[in-house]
Amino acid sequence: SRSTVSQVDGTFDVRGLLPGRYGLVAAAPGLLGDLRRPITLGLAETVEGLRLEMTSAAQVVGQVLIAKTGVPCAQGLVRLGGPDVAQATAEEWPTGAPPASGPPVVANVEPGGWVHFPAVAPGHYFVTVQCIGHVLHDGPRTLDVQAEPPPKLTWNVAPGLGLSFVAVDERD
Questions:
Q1: Residues 120-167: pLDDT tens digits?
Q2: C-alpha separations of 160 from 74, 92, 131 in Å
């Protein structure tokens, strides 16, 4: 995939693509657009004059903190999308998880443990929180996003278990 930043007037060019099929998605704070059909590029072909309509989307902001200390997570990510079976519990999804209704989006944990999603389409999302060496302890595991942004979210993580092993070949 390739990305670019549009000019002030909204025009953009994406260069360095190989022949193939591509989807086109654009995001800006509070705005989201999707071409809804793939673009097929042949060898040495260019496509011009595409128009991408942007619609309102919610900005989602949260923070990932270490549960007992309140220290911000130093490195990790938060994903909004389909369920993560590694974080599911039988109480939450006793008959299996329903599908997410929004497209998956990912944001890195930034300094201070902050997570910013500049444009999230309305829908139902499962939340996956990853913080190096930690697992999700508490915080919202699902999120219903509407046109208005939800309040600031907080996810607390706790130290995870470790796993040590030795990989050997046929010679031990």
A1: 988 889 999 999 999 999 999 989 998 777 889 999 999 988 888 899
A2: 15, 20, 10
Other residues' Cβ atoms within 10 Å of the Cβ of residue 129: 25
Tokens describing residue 102: 């929004």
| Whether 105 contacts 120, CB under 8 Å | yes
Q: What is the phi/psi pair of residue 111, to 5°?
A: -50, 140
Partnered with residue 138 across adjacent β-strands are 156
Strand, coil or helix: what is 171?
coil
Which of these, 105, 157, 152, lies nearest to 129 by C-alpha position?
157
Is beta strand 58-66 parallel, antiparallel or unpaired with respect to 153-159? Answer: parallel
Q: Alpha-carbon distance 154 to 116, whole Å?
A: 12
Give tens-digit pLDDT for 87-122. 555 555 555 656 667 788 999 999 999 999 999 988
Neighbours of 156 (CB within 10 A): 19
Q: Where are the alpha helices (DSSP H) in the chain?
A: none
Say if residues 27 and 12 touch (Cβ distance below 8 Å).
Answer: no
The two beta strands, 39-41 and 31-34, are unpaired
